[in-house]
Automatic annotation (TrEMBL):
InterPro entries: COG7. Coiled coil: none annotated. Pfam families: COG7. GO terms for cellular component: Golgi membrane; Golgi transport complex. This is Conserved oligomeric Golgi complex subunit 7. Keywords: Golgi apparatus, Membrane, Protein transport, Transport. It comes from the Eukaryota. PANTHER family: CONSERVED OLIGOMERIC GOLGI COMPLEX COMPONENT 7 (PTHR21443), CONSERVED OLIGOMERIC GOLGI COMPLEX SUBUNIT 7 (PTHR21443:SF0). It comes from Haematococcus lacustris (Green alga). It is a peripheral membrane protein.
Length: 275
């Protein structure tokens, strides 16, 4: 009986919220809207199986989508350069992100964060990888320029979205490494780096890996660290694995050239006549 009364009370309150939230949307009070949507989500978890509310989750999702549409444009514009942000801007971003987090839209916050950050990283990468310099020059220079950027972003996350810092920074580092992995592999294979220089390249990558780990939150799970390191070193590992086939091909080509030269020499012709 008590359970039935509690369910009836929740259902009554939920019906009222579905009506009231439209008025609050119209007033533009988005923090109140987010609060009400959170209440509605909790109520639906209790009474969602009641026939009257079978369509409740779909209605709630539509309301959450509406809130997201009203917030994400402003958040995208406000969440710019971490190094140049001011305290008022940080507070504004935290407030907007909080609205999305309140309705379980972390994925939207992460996507907007990555969009605004990766654009600058892309410009750094394009400037580096289009260089005609040796890979041992341009790749370490890119690493050197990227580390302070990651450090600034980590500090920004800790200041503005501390609860999401670990997730956001892990996602950013993974997105960057994924973005540059293919291009790094292609440039390394094209460079035909001498075997003797491979330890130098490996040392540069290892130094960059240590810098990344220092910048990322220390409580980062071991699995996430392993995945990031794998993404970083994969281009080098693939390059090293290609060397035996490359050397075998070069050896075969050298032998073919050498044999052709021997066959064409006067000594070879004289030997053939004696036979």
């Amino acid at each position: 009986m008590e359970l039935a009364c509690s369910t009836l009370k929740e259902a009554t309150e939920l019906s009222g919220l579905f009506v009231k939230v439209k008025e609050v949307f119209a007033s533009g009070d988005l923090p109140r809207v987010a609060e009400m949507l959170g209440m509605m989500r909790r109520s639906l978890a209790l009474v969602g199986d009641v026939p009257e509310f079978k369509a409740g989750r779909g209605r709630l999702r539509a309301l959450e989508d509406r809130l997201q549409g009203m917030v994400e444009g402003s958040l995208s514009q406000a969440g710019g350069d971490a190094a140049g942000s001011r305290e008022e801007e940080d507070q504004y971003v935290a407030a907007l992100a909080g609205l999305l987090l309140a309705v379980d839209r972390y994925s939207t916050v992460e996507a907007l964060f990555l969009d605004t950050r990766l654009a600058f990283v892309h410009s750094l990468w394009e400037e580096a990888c289009t260089s005609s310099e040796d890979v041992l020059v341009w790749l370490p220079r890119f690493y050197t320029r990227l580390v302070p950027v990651l450090d600034a972003e980590s500090s920004w996350c800790l200041r503005v979205l501390p609860q999401q810092q670990q997730q956001l920074m892990t996602a950013l580092a993974a997105a960057i490494l994924q973005k540059i992995s293919k291009a790094t592999r292609e440039r390394l294979l094209a460079s035909r780096l001498p075997v003797a220089q491979l330890p130098l390249l490996s040392a540069e990558m290892a130094a960059f890996a240590r810098s990344i780990m220092d910048v990322l939150p220390h409580e980062l799970p071991g699995v996430a660290r392993t995945q990031l390191l794998t993404s970083l070193f994969q281009p080098l590992e693939e390059m090293v694995s290609s060397y035996p086939a490359m050397e075998l091909g070069e050896l075969g080509s050298s032998l073919t050239t050498a044999l052709a030269a021997v066959r064409a020499s006067p000594t070879a012709e004289s030997s053939a006549e004696h036979l």
